[in-house]
Amino acid sequence: MAELVIPPAGSGKRDFLALGALVTRLDPGIIPFAAADTYALHVSGGEYNVAANLARCFGQRAAVASAIVDYPIGQKVEREVRAAGVEGIYKRFAHDGVRGPNMATVWSDRGAGPRPPVVFYNRANEAAGQLAPGSFDWKRIFDEGTRWFHSGGIFSALSPTIPELVIEGMKAAKKAGAVVSFDLNYRAKLWKLAGQEKAPEVLSNIVRNVDVLVGNEEDLQLGLGLTGPATGGGSKLDPANFLHTIEEVTRRFPNVSTIATTLREVHSTNRHSWSAVLWMNGKSWVAPTMELDVLDRIGGGDGFAAGLFYGMLTGRSPEESLRLGWAHGALVTTYPGDTTLATLAEVEALAKGGNARVQR
Fold first, then answer.
1. Does 8 fall in a domain?
2. Which residue segment(s) compose the domain that 125 sits in?
3. Which terminal residue of the chain has fewer beta carbons within 10 Å of its beta carbon, N or C?
4. CA–CA separation, 41 vs 259, rounded Å?
């Protein structure tokens, strides 16, 4: 069984490096898109969100490797990345003034009550999809020192060259002694265009290079082509099916030492029951169940990953790491936007069983 070895704190230039697409999310709040005439703009990205959370809340030295287009939207994105305390490592693209290449736009409202959030994309001629092996000087990056390398399934669905780039980065990270993590984040709309039948082969090739895997039962089955119990049945808070599926994951991918996910029962858009589970080296831990009042659910899973990774980077026990992820992911859903506004003290208090009584 693979053993997880994390480089010591303070070694090298960075604690964490994410490889992924940077996007702008247009958020009309609770107003449906067709009726909205104002939108908040959030800088986001499934991989970047984890880096931003680790920098802003947890004080880690975080970076993102991505594509930037040299036009005003790209400048906005670059400023927001800097403001989050994240180092940008960019492959730059020039905009032709008409067609692109572009920074992608994700449209995502918040829904309300019985009305679910709606997400759709404009990723036409996206610069990040043009990234390919050779886009980044991995030797230089890892020679500077990086403890943890992370990417995800949303980014991997963008083009045929992206999985090759992800694997290239992972191999360089492994050679340098960094931990490698991957969030499956299976998105049916993206893989429909990429070819849904390709997802298990593409993602399996990536996961063969991974130490820490994040993904729920559906991600594991649809993303990796696992059989497992039928998805959609029983309580979403019961970890039994997830833990059963892990048996097949570890048979196929003995390199994976750690697997984690959130558990969420959605009662309405604004009311969820929330838990999480961690499997590591043959043992499992389950977080408590919290009744969660949700303002904006986008980014909760990335918040969980950031808290979990922080715990592991700082030498916390598996149970403490799980609780930090569980607490931080819950807090992220109480803020507008995709990234955290929490403090470390707030996360640690909730992880230890804190509540929402007035703080005087």
1. no
2. 16-351
3. C
4. 32
